[in-house]
Amino acid sequence: MKSISINSITELPKVAEELLSFANGDKFFVFEGEMAAGKTTFIKSFCEELGITDVVSSPTFSIVNEYESKFGPVYHFDFYRLKNIQEAYDIGYEEYFYSGDYCLIEWPSKVEELLPESYIKVDIAITAETGRSFTFSRQ
Fold first, then answer.
1. pLDDT at 102
2. What was the pLDDT predicted at 23?
3. Do residues 103 and 29 lie in contact, with contact meaning Cβ atoms separated by under 8 Å?
4. Which strands make up the sheet holding 28-32, listed edge to edge?
5. What is the average pLDDT across 111-132?
6. Of the residues 58, 61, 69, 137, which has the fewest C-beta atoms closer than 10 A?
7. Helix, strand, coil % over all residues of the chain, rounded to 5
8. Is the pLDDT of residue 17 over 80?
9. What gap in Å lies between CA 2 and CA 15, rounded to an integer?
10. Cα dihedral: 94, 56, 42, 139 (round 10)
């Protein structure tokens, strides 16, 4: 487990670099945190660390966005608006989750029973107006 606290959004690239190092080649990540904790904002920074130059935005309505990185495809999921588990089946979650490519999951509790056996969990906690605490762990 690793914990990092920041006081400003300008420190996110450092956190993204630390996460990539912590992952040590693992490519499946779940992001936990209350609404407005900064999950999507951090994922944008993490995607920059992966070399993505496309605009990274929340896939709230599309459920999944795909980006090209220097490491291959990166799939960014936001399951917040998922009405039921069948919707995950309908988008073909298995093809993404078990592709071996990067998968970044927001609101993983909505699809908990579908998550792979092992993954990197990123907990984001609000500590101040612009302060955040990040905890990385292996599940």
1. 97
2. 97
3. yes
4. 2-6, 132-138, 120-126, 28-32, 102-106, 72-78, 64-69
5. 96
6. 61
7. 30, 30, 40
8. yes
9. 11
10. 10
Distance of alpha carbon 98 from alpha carbon 116, whole angstroms? 8
Residue 107 CB: number of other CB atoms within 10 A? 19
- The number of beta carbons lying within 10 Å of the beta carbon of residue 19 is 20
Rg (CA), the chain: 14
Strands 120-126, 132-138: pairing kind: antiparallel
- Tokens 């990274």 sit at which residue? 56
Look up tokens 């993983």; give the residue.
108
Q: Do 116 and 109 touch, CB atoms closer than 8 A?
A: no
Determine contact, residues 11/105, Cβ cutoff 8 Å.
no
Tokens representing 119? 């993954």
Q: Which long-range contacts (CB under 8 A, 24 or more apart) does 56-61 make?
A: 58/106
Amino acid at 111: V
